[in-house]
Amino acid sequence: MVFLKIFEKGQETLMSKLDQLLTRISCASSPGVEDLETILSLENPAEIKVLFNFADAVRQKVCGCGILLRGIVEFSNFCRNTCAYCGLNKNNSALPRYRLSMSEILESVARIAASKIKTVVLQSGEDECMDILDLLEVIQTIKERFDMSVTLSLGELNVKDYQLLKKAGADRYLLKIETSDQALYESLHPGMSFENRVACLHDLKQIGFQTGSGNIVGLRGQTLRMIAEDILFFKEEDLDMVGIGPFIPHGETPLKDESCGSALLTLKTLALARIVLKNVHLPATTALGSLKKDFREEALSAGANVLMPNFTPVKYKKLYEIYPNKRCVDEPEGACVSCFTTLAKSLGRTIDYSRGDTLKADKSVI
C-alpha cells in the first residue's frame, strides 16, 4: 500500500511537470527546440495521453467542435520531379498517367457542391504540360457556378502563374515542404532547390493566398530535432494550414525498402503542432488513414480539425498513387462523407459545412 501511494505521487509529479512543459511551449512566442524534442520523445502512454488531451483542448478553444470537410479532386498524376518517396515521380514507368478534362473536373466539383462541402482542393503532380489557361477557366467556372472556396496544390510555379490563379479566384494554395532541413530536402528531391521551395511559399503569401505547407514524418535520415524544427518553421512562416502525415514506402521509388513512418510519432507531431501553431487548420490526413489501421480518429482527438473526402472519379483514384494502399480508392466519389458524419458524432463533434477560411483573421484566438 505504501509503495502504491509513493508510485501514485510520483506519477502525479511527472504529470505536473509535463503540464508545466506543455504550458511553457504553448505560451512561448518562440518555443525552445529542446522542449519540442522532449515532447516528441515521449513514450509513456499516460504522458502521451496528457499531450493529446492538451492539444485537443487547444483545438477546442481555437476551432470549436466542428470538423471541416475539403473535397479533393486529383486531376493529373503527371509529374516532372523525381522525389525519392513519391509514386508519382516521373521515373515510375509502371504508373499509367492521366489528366482529367475540364468537364470531368467540373463534374467532380458538382458532386462536392451537392454534398454541401464549401471547399474544393484541386491537386496534381507538378505537371509541366498543364494548360494554365484551361485551369484558369475551371477556377472561374467554379467560382461562378458554385458558392465554393478553391484550394490549389500544383507545386512550384512562377510568380506570374500564381498571380493569374489568384486573379481567377483561387483562394488557397498548399505547397508542402516535406522537411525544413535543407540537406535532407535536397537529398530527397534531386534537381530541386530548397531555397526555391521556400521562395514559392513566400510568393504565395505575398500574392494573398491562404497558404499551407506540411511535412512527412519518418523519412530516412530524419531526426526528432528535424521534426521539431519543422514545427518551428511552420510557426515562423505563419501558415494558415499544415498537413502532417507518415512516410509510406512506395515500391517504385528509391525508398521502397524503408519502413513506414510511425503513426504514434506522426500523432505526437500533429498534437505538438496544434499546441505551438494554435490557429491553423490541421487535417487528419489520408496517409494517417492508409496504414494498417486508420488513425484519423486518433488524429481528430489530438488536435486535427479537417477531413478530406476524395471526389476523384473512381477510375482514376488508384492512379494517383503517391503511396500505396490508399484508403477508399474503390468507393464511389465522396462516399466517405457519410462515414465522416458518423465519426464526428462518435467523438461528440459535428461536421462543419462552412468554407473554413483562415483562422488568422480572428486575432482573439492567438
Model description:
By secondary structure, this protein is of the alpha/beta class. The chain has one domain (57-355): Alpha-Beta Barrel (TIM Barrel). It has helices spanning 2-27, 33-40, 45-63, 102-114, 132-145, 159-168, 182-188, 194-207, 224-237, 263-277, 296-300, 314-317, 336-346; strands at 66-69, 71-76, 119-124, 149-153, 172-174, 210-217, 241-246, 306-307, 350-352. The protein has a six-stranded parallel beta sheet. A three-stranded parallel beta sheet has the order 8-1-9. α5 (132-145) runs parallel beside α6 (159-168).
Question: What key attributes describe this structure?
Answer:
366 residues; 3-stranded parallel sheet; 6-stranded parallel sheet; TIM Barrel
Which term fits the overall shape?
globular
Order of helices and strands: HHHEEHEHEHEHHEHEHHEHHE
Stated plainly, the CATH topology is called TIM Barrel
- Indicate the structural class: alpha/beta
Indicate the low-confidence ranges by residue numbers: none
